[in-house]
């Protein structure tokens, strides 16, 4: 079956428009840069003008239509990119990935197209998923239009319950301009393939409405493309299930329904708001500014388009609309160590007593978490000294949308030395002191996927270490408190249950260490008993290292890069902390935006990546890293989950790759040597930076004493 369901025979269709003149030479990193607003518009215009596609605007109109949902860069094939980057080959053809909803045909589906060449597209072809599978129309992500229709259907269906809702909550749906109710939807949207039935958590629309469920959850069936045929299938109120709106309304009218009357929310100091309240015990000042990051002698990094350089580091980056940050061509000391490092998926599995809680299994790529990159606040989300960058997305819109200050880059003092040593002379003085300040360059963005905020960081350290990290914050996904719900979380407020859940984040790490032909080894340490060679009869016991490659005994790991996780996921869910596979061009991602609404038979199944029994010796390899944590909400998650203790990640570290720590090339160390040991009254201080950093920090020059004397 042809995916588009339209009658033509060729996968490639070329228009008559001639290609335009070639553009001026660009930085090589630009082959990975996100599409510009002009390119996004050009792709959409080109597709809208193809009569055989029959496309309509994304906004307005019926659901059963053909429309462009997403346009973003389609990265070039790796072989073509490396031929260009490493061997001076031709610049790869620049193309876009376009996701098109084909709803106005006999067999509706979702089809992905490659459109190019950019900046003046003249052709497109179908992008087949692995295995040649089609994406059913019911598996498509939600759109703004469907949400609007969902709200209209909900308001109409809830009309018989307006007396109940007003009496219990003081808020309502009907003729609402103030004191309104709203909803949060959960996913997956059903219990099996073909379903599109969503549980909606009804909430008071106040600041931080995620923490204000009213005790009513509604299962609304919206599978049919015609909204007039949508219907409420079940309801849950205060621990009980009901088969229809009428049943619940009649019980309330007869006075036979136990009603939970919620207290009136205060006009100020609402518990879900950020308004200051209470006092800190010590009384130390918080109404003045705290410590700040500064750059006393200017920036020590270079940003050219999407090329970022810092110390020994060089990389290209982009912000995918679908899944977020993606690094390419990551080099240290001019040598490529990774072709790609990218966020793939963020999952949260919930438990609960209410139907919405027990059904919730969020897969945030399905909510286009990369396009949820809203403005970063200077001085809060990033230091005042940061460089801020805009992002442009074409997602469920009729043109590109600018997201101001969606990314930031800044150098961060880590607050701990990168390395240091005090060489004691054991006579009250020292032979020398040496230290190198701790610094890292941070590339940051955020994803606010409704209630949760993820802060995504890549950190570059001077010693060749790269850290990938994500902080979780924002509002917890909470449901109405019932005594039965205590098994699945904590009562965090009077009528609020914080549901326990597990966060899992998946990364792709395409390492190219000294070329694309790599192998994978693990190292373990075990104790061994040996005879003491200098004292007969004594048996010292100590550790011994050993290595394994592909599960077979082998030597200890040699030169390369290691990927120890910063914090491993909890052991109670079946998954892999680390999986290593051969790289294939048709396995670009471990998840997809369709998995959320079709988790039963998803178009991309990561398990298939690792079940093909391929050798991984001297091959182009990809490491797939999973990090995560179990979150048992508690009252201190009100109003928001705090970032300390809720961050996970992993490191890429050189392992016998360099002759020594490459940060020795830094000119930022301090060395102090006494000129008159052991008195140490005259010191030689060596540093290669100015004596004083400048006025933004302590104005006095660096000094050191180093002695310890009796008093």
TrEMBL record:
Report the cofactor remark.
Answer: Contains 1 topaquinone per subunit.
What positions constitute the catalytic site? 364 (proton acceptor), 452 (schiff-base intermediate with substrate)
Tell me where in this chain the Copper amine oxidase catalytic domain is found: 292-529, 575-663
Q: Show the GO MF annotations.
A: copper ion binding; diamine oxidase activity; primary methylamine oxidase activity; quinone binding
Q: Where is it found, in Gene Ontology cellular component terms?
A: plasma membrane
PANTHER family in the record, alphabetically?
Answer: AMILORIDE-SENSITIVE AMINE OXIDASE [COPPER-CONTAINING] (PTHR10638:SF3), COPPER AMINE OXIDASE (PTHR10638)
Return the protein name: Amine oxidase
Q: Which lineage is the organism of this entry classified under, starting from the top rank?
A: Eukaryota, Metazoa, Chordata, Craniata, Vertebrata
The protein's gene is named Aoc1
């Amino acid at each position: 079956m042809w995916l588009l369901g339209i009658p033509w025979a060729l996968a490639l269709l070329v228009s008559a428009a001639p290609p335009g003149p070639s553009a001026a030479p660009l930085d090589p990193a630009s082959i990975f840069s996100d599409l510009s607003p002009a390119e996004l518009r050009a792709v959409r215009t080109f597709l809208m003008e193809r009569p055989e596609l029959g496309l309509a605007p994304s906004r307005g109109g019926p659901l059963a239509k053909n429309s462009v949902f997403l346009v973003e860069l389609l990265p070039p094939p790796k072989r073509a990119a490396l031929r260009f980057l490493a061997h001076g080959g031709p610049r790869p053809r620049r193309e876009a990935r376009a996701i098109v909803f084909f709803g106005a045909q006999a067999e509706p589906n979702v089809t992905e197209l490659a459109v190019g060449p950019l900046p003046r597209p003249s052709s497109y072809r179908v992008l087949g998923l692995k295995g040649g599978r089609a994406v059913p129309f019911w598996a498509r992500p939600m759109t703004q239009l469907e949400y609007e229709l969902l709200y209209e259907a909900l308001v109409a269906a809830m009309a018989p319950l307006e007396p109940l809702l007003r009496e219990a909550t003081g808020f309502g749906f009907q003729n609402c301009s103030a004191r309104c109710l709203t909803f949060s939807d959960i996913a997956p949207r059903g219990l099996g393939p073909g379903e599109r039935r969503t549980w909606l958590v009804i909430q008071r629309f106040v600041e931080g409405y995620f923490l204000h469920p009213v005790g009513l959850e509604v299962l609304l069936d919206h599978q049919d493309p015609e909204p007039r045929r949508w219907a409420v299938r079940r309801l849950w109120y205060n621990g009980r299930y009901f088969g229809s709106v009428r049943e619940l309304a009649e019980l309330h009218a007869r006075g036979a329904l136990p009603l939970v009357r919620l207290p009136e929310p205060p006009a100020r100091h609402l518990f879900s708001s950020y308004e200051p309240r209470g006092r800190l015990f010590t009384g130390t000042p918080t109404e003045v500014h705290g410590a700040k990051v500064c750059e006393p002698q200017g920036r020590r990094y270079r940003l050219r388009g999407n090329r970022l350089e810092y110390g020994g580091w060089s990389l290209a980056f982009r912000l995918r609309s679908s899944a977020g940050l993606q690094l390419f061509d990551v080099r240290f000391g001019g040598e490529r160590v990774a072709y790609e490092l990218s966020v793939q998926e963020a999952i949260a599995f919930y438990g609960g007593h209410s139907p919405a809680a027990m059904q919730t299994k969020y897969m945030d790529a399905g909510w286009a978490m990369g396009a949820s990159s809203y403005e970063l606040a200077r001085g809060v989300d990033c230091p005042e000294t940061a460089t801020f960058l805009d992002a442009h997305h074409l997602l469920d819109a009729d043109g590109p949308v600018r997201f101001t200050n969606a990314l930031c880059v800044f150098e961060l003092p880590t607050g701990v030395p990168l390395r240091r040593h005090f060489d004691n002379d054991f006579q009250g003085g020292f032979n020398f002191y040496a230290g190198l300040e701790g610094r890292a360059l941070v590339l940051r963005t955020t994803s606010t996927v409704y209630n949760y905020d993820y802060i995504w960081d890549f950190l570059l350290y001077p010693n060749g270490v790269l850290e990938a990290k994500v902080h979780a914050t924002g509002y917890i996904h909470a449901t109405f408190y019932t005594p039965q719900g205590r098994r699945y979380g904590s009562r965090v407020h009077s009528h609020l249950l914080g549901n326990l859940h597990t966060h899992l984040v998946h990364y792709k790490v395409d390492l190219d260490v000294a070329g694309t032909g790599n192998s994978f080894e693990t190292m373990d340490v075990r104790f061994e008993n040996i005879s003491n060679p200098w004292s007969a009869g004594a048996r010292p016991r100590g550790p011994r290292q050993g290595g394994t490659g592909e599960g077979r005994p082998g030597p200890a790991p040699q030169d390369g890069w290691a990927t120890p996780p910063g914090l491993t996921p909890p052991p109670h869910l079946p998954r892999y902390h680390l999986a290593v596979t051969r790289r294939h061009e048709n396995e670009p991602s471990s998840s997809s935006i369709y998995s959320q609404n079709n988790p039963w038979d998803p178009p991309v199944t990561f398990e298939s990546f690792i079940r093909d029994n391929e050798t991984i010796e001297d091959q182009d390899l990809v490491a797939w890293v999973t990090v995560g944590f179990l979150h048992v909400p508690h009252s201190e998650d009100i109003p928001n989950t705090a970032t300390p203790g809720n961050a996970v990640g992993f490191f890429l570290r050189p392992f016998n790759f360099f002759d020594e720590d490459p940060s020795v090339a830094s000119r930022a160390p301090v060395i102090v040597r006494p000129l008159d040991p052991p008195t140490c009254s005259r010191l030689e201080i060596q540093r290669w930076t100015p004596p004083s950093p400048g006025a933004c920090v302590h104005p006095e020059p660096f000094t050191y004493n180093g002695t310890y004397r009796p008093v």
